[in-house]
Amino acid sequence: MEPILQVKDLCYSYGEIQALRGINLHINPKEVIALIGANGAGKTTTLQCISGLLGTPQNGEIFFNCVLLNGKRPHDISRLGLTQVLEGRKVFPHLTVKENLKMGAYGANVDVNENLNEIYRRFPRLKEREKQYGGTLSGGEQQMLAIGRALMRKPKIILMDEPSLGLAPLIVREVFAIIKDINSEGIPILLVEQNSKSALHAAKRGYVLETGTIVLEGDAEELMHNEMVIKSYLGGS
Fold it and tell me: Do both 202 and 168 map to the same domain?
């Protein structure tokens, strides 16, 4: 099976600080992949390199559907079908829910109204609040809006950065149910998440990142029972 996304020997530095040290990972069609690790491990940097937000990496190659992404601008990468849900939601606070969603389809060759109705069917609360400003929504509603905005482009893969950050436990469960529902429709997801247990429950496979290096990878269920993972990331002793 040909991976839909492949990262080879990826290195990235912020000045003298080397954030990524030869990352290798891949995602097959229809998979959810969890990328877990402590704060500062390089998880967000990995996603931003893939989506082009940090420019061309110092070393390594990134392929999406066999297309080399190195040197491509973020909006060109997005047009290929790769979409990122940013950490902290990043909704437009002074645009309405409907306007936020339409911004997700900007520049994409999609039927905006049809996609909008599909998002409202998936997230009835967004339909109820379509005239409210994004900044007035609760944290959970903003996360739904951010995910809905990404789905407006009919993506071929979604990168999600800390979707449960700052949310109440009940809302966290709802967000992960949404992730599983999206994946059930065949959309692969690369999931960066501090809530390692929930991330591995949602994923098929996982990678553990420490100080810019992949130190462990494998089946998500196996990682859930790995002594190092339990001790470092699942609250075990």
Answer: yes
Could you tell me which residues come within 8 angstroms of residue 230 by beta carbon, excluding any fewer than 6 positions away?
A: 224, 236
- Of 110, 126, 152, the residue that ends a domain is 152
**For the chain, what is the domain count?**
2
Q: Which range marks the domain in which residue 222 is found?
A: 1-81+156-237
Quick one: pLDDT at residue 236?
A: 59
Please write the tens of the pLDDT for every residue from 30-74: 999 999 999 999 999 999 999 999 999 999 999 999 999 999 999
pLDDT tens readout for residues 161-183: 999 988 889 999 999 999 999 99
CB-based contacts of 134: which residues, under 8 Å, 6+ apart? 91, 92, 93, 94, 95, 96, 97, 100, 142, 145
How many degrees, rounded to 5, is the angle at CA 38 between CA 59 and CA 230?
120
DSSP one-letter code for 73: -
